[in-house]
Write a structure and sequence with these properties.
six-stranded antiparallel beta sheet; outer membrane lipoprotein receptor (LolB), chain A; alpha+beta; 2 domains; disordered N terminus
Length: about 400
């Protein structure tokens, strides 16, 4: 609902960990020996422990590093005269603009939470800070570098909250059962030892695709042994190298933060931009039909191809979404040289029984755009996309 969509824009680290937990399948396993020495626990028991976690208050420092294997955007931005900002552009404090920085590089954040009504996230960037505060009906964001403030007021009504609540399983056991049902036979899970994360004892949950052809090598979640809160999340690609996402607490305290932590007053002289709540909720009605159902990946819904305009090839981690645009692919050699160079740097020309096209690649999601306008996309290897196109499905 509207409140859920709005919240997902702000609590990025928690949302990432939540999505990962929702993709887990089950292979019963006992925790391997490790440091610290914790009681043995099965994978199902650990899933239920995560589901039963009711952490309402916390504060701490969080570090996130992201490496999608994309070329640097700096040259492209300068070649096009800069992206965003400038006169008439969105406020530099707008969360929908600022938080996109988390998709690349390494960032340190301070986080605090006091139940569902109060959260604060501060992005540290050298001497500059960007703060995002949710306090009741108000959302404030402040960019110290530009001295700009973004304010949005209004939250979902009680009816929407009730509707959202109806979709949630009623107990940890029920949630674990839903997880297993969604993942099916495509995913394995083990409890692989223990670790210290932010000074806390934790179990290591390791999730791996059983299928070949996925770009995902593994997902690891460090789970607080005492309260079941995910403390660290690592997503690794079959390409090796740095993890695609490595996010976790370096310090954490589960005590109640002071109320003053969530108070905000716009600094003197700051430019304040008021956001329209009805425009900022990313309404599902604005998305392509079927898009909300996901790409058919485990735990992300049935996917395209039932009522939507896309078809899904395969299942589980190797599901591929196919879309026929009905229009020839644009010719990159007619684009500005900066754009052409950028596209060439992460696009591979391919050919086969389907004809010819370009595979645009990252370490996680790859997409094949054929010259006659068909698109194949998924968290699968380049060869898997070409095979799907050759099959003419």
């Amino acid at each position: 609902m509207a409140e859920t969509r709005k919240a997902s824009r702000f609590i990025v680290p928690v949302a990432v960990a939540g999505v990962a937990a929702a993709t887990i399948g089950l292979v019963p396993a006992l925790a391997a020996s490790g440091d610290p020495d914790l009681p043995e626990i099965t994978a199902q028991q650990l899933i239920e422990k995560i589901a039963a976690s009711d952490t309402q208050t916390l504060s701490g420092t969080f570090k996130i590093s992201t490496d999608l294997g994309l070329p640097a955007l700096d040259g492209l931005a300068s070649g096009l005269g800069g992206l965003g900002g400038g006169d008439g552009g969105p406020s530099s404090a707008d969360p929908s603009e600022k938080l996109t920085e988390l998709v690349s590089g390494s960032h340190t954040l301070r986080v605090a939470a006091d139940g569902p009504e109060r959260q604060k996230l501060t992005l540290l960037d050298g001497s500059d800070e960007y703060s995002l505060i949710h306090n009741g009906d108000d959302v404030w964001a402040y960019d110290s570098k530009s001295n700009e403030v973004f304010h949005e007021k209004g939250a979902a009504g009680e009816g929407e909250k009730a509707d959202a609540g109806k979709k949630l399983p009623g107990s940890p056991k029920e949630l674990a059962d839903e997880v297993l049902k969604a993942a099916g036979d495509t995913t394995s899970i083990t409890v692989d030892g223990t670790a210290k994360v932010a000074g806390r004892d934790a179990y290591q949950l390791v999730i791996k695709p059983k299928q070949s052809g996925s770009t995902v090598e593994s997902v690891k979640i460090a789970v607080d042994a005492a309260n079941g809160t995910p403390l660290k999340f690592t997503l690794s690609s079959v390409e090796g190298g740095k993890p695609v996402v490595d996010a976790g607490f370096t310090k954490v305290d589960f005590g109640k933060p002071a109320a003053s932590e969530f108070a905000f007053t716009a600094p003197k002289g700051a430019k304040v931009t008021e956001g329209a709540a009805e425009k900022a909720t990313d309404s599902a009605e604005d998305l392509p039909k079927g898009f909300e159902e996901g790409l058919g990946l485990p735990g992300l819904g049935a996917g395209f191809g039932k009522d939507g305009g896309m078809n899904v090839i395969g299942e589980g981690w190797t599901a591929i979404a196919k879309l026929d645009t009905g229009a020839p692919a644009p010719k990159t050699d007619e684009a500005p040289k900066e754009v052409q160079g950028f596209l060439d740097s992460f696009g591979d020309k391919v050919s086969g029984g389907f004809g010819s096209g370009t595979v645009f690649k990252t370490k996680l999601v790859n997409a094949l755009l054929t010259d006659d306008g068909r698109v194949y996309v998924g968290a699968v290897t380049k060869d898997a996309l070409v095979d799907a196109a050759n099959a003419g499905k």
